[in-house]
Amino acid sequence: MAANLEQVATMFVQYYYNQFDQDRTGLATLYREGSMLTFESSSFKGTASIIEKLHGLPFQQIKHQVSTMDPQPGVAPDHIMVLVTGQLLVDEEQRPMSYTQSFYLVPEVANGQTQYYVHNDIFKLVYG
Description:
There is one protein chain. This protein is α+β, with helices and mostly antiparallel strands. The protein has helices at residues 2-22, 47-55; strands at 31-39, 42-45, 62-73, 80-90, 97-110, 113-126. The protein has a six-stranded mixed beta sheet, with helices on one face. A hairpin with a 6-residue loop joins strand 3 and strand 4. The chain is globular. The model has no long low-confidence stretch (mean pLDDT 94).
C-alpha cells in the first residue's frame, strides 16, 4: 500500500497543478457534489460552487511549484490524505507566494478502473 499510496498521491498532485495552471475549469472532473473546498477560510460545497470559486480567482496566469508532498492513508481503505507545500507565481509577479494545500482523496470505480476524486480540499497562503 505504501508504494501505491505514494504513487497515487504523486500522480494526483502533478495532474492537479498542471490542470490548475493551464485551465482551472478542467478540475471539475476531480470534485463531486459532496466535495468541499476551504480557500483562505471561505468554504464552498459541490462541484459547481468549487469551480466557480477557482475560475473566479483574480489572476490570468499562475504557476505552482511543489516543494513537499506528504501522503498518509485515510480513514477508509484506499483513501488518501495529501499535504502539499510550495510556492506560486501569479501573472507578472516576480516574488513567489508560499502556500499549503491539503487534499482528502476518495477512490471510486468507473468503467472497471479505480479513480480518485477530491472529497476535501483546504488551501492557505502562508505569510511571513
